[in-house]
UniProtKB/TrEMBL annotation:
Pfam families: ABC_tran, TOBE_2. Keywords: ATP-binding, Cell membrane, Ion transport, Iron, Iron transport, Membrane, Nucleotide-binding, Transport. InterPro entries: AAA+_ATPase (IPR003593), ABC_SmlMolc_Importer (IPR050093), ABC_transporter-like_ATP-bd (IPR003439), ABC_transporter-like_CS (IPR017871), ABC_transpr_FbpC (IPR015853), P-loop_NTPase (IPR027417), Transp-assoc_OB_typ2 (IPR013611). The keyword Nucleotide-binding applies. It comes from the Bacteria. It comes from Ornithinimicrobium pekingense. This is ABC transporter.
Length: 337
């Protein structure tokens, strides 16, 4: 089990990691999710032993790792660009950590075949990394990271260099591979969908601090602050009477406008529906791959982000919306960190 206790890392006047405490249980996957510059890579590097800690402790199974060099921690690292050795074959790349551990030739070949199978690239052993697609290269990098059966796998934006559709597919595969191998992992990413797909738990990091940590579904459903909500994809924020009006008649939200607080809504929470109880006027309509993104001025509420299935709505059109409570969350100010 990995435990971080008040970890702090400074670069001059910049506090890149500010008193971070987190744990990752054996066999589970934690995603540290945050915007560019929030300190997530520095946090990962400090776990790997690549940064000097200005405060706090990094412990593995109860043992403080201060003074334990990177190569003796038993952790593996995987980066955005897999950093494969271009001059070596795929099989040699994957076998590299095994060679370092003096695993014999026959056993190495057996493990390489097994790992290529695991990452969906059987028969690719003799290829050079430069002849592979970006997604295939990341699969090879993952196989190499898993070769030595690391106690902890540290993943730094492992899918960021890939295009969207490939990233979605590989995120699902990554999840399956980590679960099937029982790997304990910590992944840093700025992509909330990726965090949701790959991890069991999610820690949202803002300005060097952990703003919220919990099971991915819980963080997804109940962000503790507007900043966290915005970062995980909530787009509309309303309060007071406007919020009460929005949820009136929608079961399951239970928002009392008079009690204060903010109602956060994902775009998917407001859908065009001819039986919907909210009426408004379309201000903007943008078609995306499988839906239409609308901005709708709702009477007595203001402009909200909504979703339509067909591209039949134009600015100025009157529409009615239905609220789906699964995409709505009441931000609880009391729990704000
Ligand atoms: N070696 C360094 N020297 C000085 N400042 C640094 C150093 N490394 C990181 N920083 C600063 O620390 C802060 C956190 O950087 P870090 O790379 O950890 O963020 P990040 O969340 O991983 O961002 P990104 O997603 O853009 O990589 C930033 O303000 C950055 O400029």
């Amino acid at each position: 089990m990995l435990e971080l206790d008040d970890v702090t890392v400074r670069f001059g006047a910049t506090v890149a990691v500010d008193s971070v405490s987190l744990s990752v249980a054996e066999g589970s996957v934690l995603a540290v999710l945050g915007p560019s510059g929030c300190g997530k890579s520095t946090l990962l590097r400090s776990i790997a032993g690549l940064e000097h800690l200005d405060g706090g402790r990094v412990c593995w199974d109860g043992r403080d790792l201060a003074g334990v060099p990177t190569h003796e921690r038993g952790f593996a690292l995987m980066f955005q660009d897999g950093q494969l050795f271009a001059h070596a074959s795929v099989a040699e790349n994957i076998a590299y950590p095994l060679k370092l551990r003096r695993v014999g030739r026959g056993e190495r070949a057996r493990r390489v075949a097994e790992l290529l199978e695991l990452v969906g690239l059987p028969g690719y052993g003799d290829r050079r990394p430069t002849t592979l697609s970006g997604g295939e290269q990341q699969r090879v990098a993952l196989a190499r990271s898993l070769a030595a059966e690391p106690a902890l796998l540290l993943l730094d934006e492992p899918l960021s260099a890939l295009d969207r559709s490939l990233r979605d597919r590989l995120a699902g595969d990554l999840r399956e591979i980590l679960v099937s191998t029982g790997t304990t992992a910590l992944m840093v990413t700025h992509d909330h969908d990726e965090a949701f797909t790959v991890a069991d738990r999610m820690a949202v990091m803002l300005d060097g601090r952990i703003a919220q940590e919990g099971e991915t579904v819980d963080v997804w459903r109940a962000p503790v602050s507007r900043q966290v909500a915005e970062f995980i994809g909530y787009e509309t924020f309303v309060e007071g009477e406007a919020a009460a009006r929005l949820v009136r008649g929608a079961d399951g939200v239970g928002f009392d406008g008079a009690a204060g607080g903010v109602l956060a809504l994902r775009r998917s929470a407001l859908r065009v529906d001819e039986d919907g109880s909210l009426s408004g006027v379309v201000r903007r309509a943008v078609s995306v791959s499988d839906a239409v993104h609308l901005e709708v001025e709702v009477d007595g509420v203001g402009e909200v982000a909504a979703l339509a299935e067909d591209p039949v709505h134009h600015p100025g059109d009157a529409v009615t919306l239905r609220l789906d409570p699964r995409g709505a969350s009441r931000l609880n100010d009391a729990r704000r960190l």
